[in-house]
Amino acid sequence: MAGRSLELLDFPRIRELVAGFCRTQMGKEPALGMLPRADPEWVAEELDKVDELLALGEEPSLSEVVDVRDLLTRARQGAALSGKELLNVKQVCAGIRRCRQFFSRRRDRIPKVWLIARLLVEQAELEQAVEKALDDAGEVCDTATPRLKQTRQELRRRRNKLVSRLEHMAADHPDWFTDRPTVRRDRFVLPVRIEARDRVTGVIHESSGTGHTLFVEPMETVGEQNELAELRGIEVEEVARILRSLSDLVAEREQQLRASLTRTGKIDLLLAKRRFALEFDCKRPEITDDGGIQLVAGRHPLLVRRKVRVVPLDFGFPEDAQVVLISGPNAGGKTVAIKTLGLLSLMMGCGMHLPVGDGARLPLFREVFADIGDEQSLDSDLSSFTAHMTRLKGILEQADEHSLVLLDEIGSSTAPEEGVALAIAVLEILRNRGVRTVATSHFGVLKVFVQDQPGMVNAAMGFQDGQPTYRLTIGFPGESSAFEIAAGVGLPDELLEKAQARLGREWLDLSTKLRDLNQELEQARVSRQTASEEQARAERLRLEYEEKLVGLRQRAADEQQRLRAEQETFLRETRREVENLVRQIKESQAEHEAVVKAKRYVEDRLKQVTATAAEVKEKHPSFELTVGDVVESRMFQRRGVVADIRRDQVTVAFGQIRMQLSADDLTLVQSEVRQKQEVAEPGESYSFEPKLSIRGMTKEQASEAVSRFLDEAGCFRAKQLAILHGKGTGALQRMLWDRLRKDPRVEELRFGEEYQGGSGVTLLTLRMPRSGSSEKNKEFPSSIRPGAKRRP
Predict the structure, then answer these.
(1) What would the DSSP string read from start to end of 59-98?
(2) How many angstroms separate the CA atoms of 657 and 633, rounded?
(3) From CA 407, how far away is CA 7, in angstroms rounded?
(4) pLDDT tens-digit map of 301-318
(5) What are φ and ψ of residue 279, in 5° steps?
(6) What is the distance between the alpha carbons of residues 92 and 110, in angstroms, rounded to a whole number?
(7) Whole-angstrom Cα distance, residue 38 to residue 651?
(8) Cα–Cα distances in Å, from 232 out to 21, 215, 511, 667?
(9) 366 closest CA partner among 674, 43, 70
(10) Tens-digit pLDDT profile for residues 146-202
(11) Is 525 within 8 Å of 471 (Cβ atoms)?
(12) Under a CB-based contact definition with an 8 Å cutoff, are residues 641 and 653 in contact?
């Protein structure tokens, strides 16, 4: 990639921006050295990694990972590192360890980033060794080695003893000394007054600035101080040995540490790209392999950084077009448009997300060539036109179908006629090679040429109400609006009128038509944008109302389910009460009046059931009942035959018992034409089957079925019963036996014989009720309790 083109497109400043988002020097260096790559697999992989980090929502702290590569080099070369330098190495090891652990805990969410992070090598041994040997200031701890600990303990003991001895000497002769003992040249001395110098025998190390005090090492302490000096020498040697040992440990791990630092830099660069994407509201572009370019709401990062009003750029090559010529007013955004396209292409080649809208598509160019601005040079005796021609020569020699060429003010800086001719020739060559080319120009002849050429298309930067709109429209040329701009800066009207008169009416009419077309397109754009916003608003409202409707339906369904559950509970309780009534009426052989009262009670309860059911009644398939149809009562869970129909009240015969029920409570089982022997006809005896199967039921279902079975058996005075529960795990059998042992109606229970089903069948014998028994009468309402009289 040509370095001059990178500079013209402001790419070095983008590298500086990314480097500014890095936290480590190891990340800044590759950021400043980024170059676009035309490898789609590498770019896609890099974008995937940034996507993973963006989705993570958090990032590790790399503040501890400072640049210690020079220290590693010195350690490898045999130098002994200082305590503070070793602390820096330890800090880096801790930062690398925490970085790896951060990504390790999230490895399932960042598989591609983890491929880098898992190669970070933790240096636990080195960390622990430095931690043990050095304190927070980088000084070697007493506990670093036993020898150092012993030496320093002895050193402190002897020093304290010596200082105490010197203090006693000073206290014994206060007139001889000016102050307490002090240190000169690593030796303990006494400050002796000049007039008492003959009274203290010793070595004079220094005198005070005034000459009134001599610093004397008493002769009787010289031996002790020599021993202290020897201990200090041992201490220095041991400290140096410890630092050397730690430095050797660093040297042994120099390659691992250097590799981990490099990988940390890669991670830091990925994190910097993540921060860049968040800062500039970037999106992932689609990589095209057909050369298609579709820039949606593209923004130049440096303009966004300056916090100026940035009009997003929408740009795309029409089908079969290779060359786009952009024209329009001065300062209308032509140069910014081609710079934005070129810069974003370079950034994508570096695996970066772009400040664009959804749907942006760009190819990966092997080369991006740019000729932008005035490269006139006095030092090299290079004119503007010569500089442009030199750049064009290099572009024409190197550009191919995998290149993007950006030419600002092509053919300018010379006579317009010659400049146009050169521009036409250059654009034709680039088109014929299949080179994607975007050029800008004010030449009217060039616009006309491009308009009629295959593979070329005009584009216009908008201008409305005397001001540029900075919006690009593909398909027709733009007007330079020189007269409007000149009037805007205050040139005299007379001068402008003369200039327009020299230009000619035909050209002015063309400019007027272009201006009107621009205005119409701007109005259409505003209308489309308004319609799009209204459509988006309507869509949001639709989704919002649909969400609310779903919520309302869900709440209604929940409420209906709750009411239905309450109804079912009410029905079960009512059915249980009715079955108890029937059983007790049979057992007590109640008189007719008591039966009538019981029936009235049941009918009253049934009205309550019907009223409750009406609140949550669901629509069932409609059917018409006729006399003789077999129906099933949902409340009683019994089948019967329709005996009479009056409006919505249906009389159903359950054997010899007739009940008036609501039609809503009935389900058609079999029409009168088809029903044969399934249910007893009115007036016939209602049969009872002394066998019950509870296989496949839950414990609750089985318990309720057994209760109904025993109640029916009591009504029909059945004595010998059989309940089939199967063998299986034995759970139903244990529940059944526990239930039957507590029932006073059961006299005996046992397993069946082998031919009857063995332990999968329980046989039971019921106690027969005694005549006149009034047991459990207290469970009935007094209004329907059976009387004491017997039926004759």
Answers:
(1) ----TT----HHHHHHHHTTPPPPHHHHHHHHHHHHHHHH
(2) 14
(3) 15
(4) 998 888 777 888 888 888
(5) -65, -40
(6) 23
(7) 87
(8) 49, 22, 95, 107
(9) 43
(10) 999 999 899 999 899 999 988 898 888 888 888 889 888 889 999 999 888 888 888
(11) yes
(12) yes
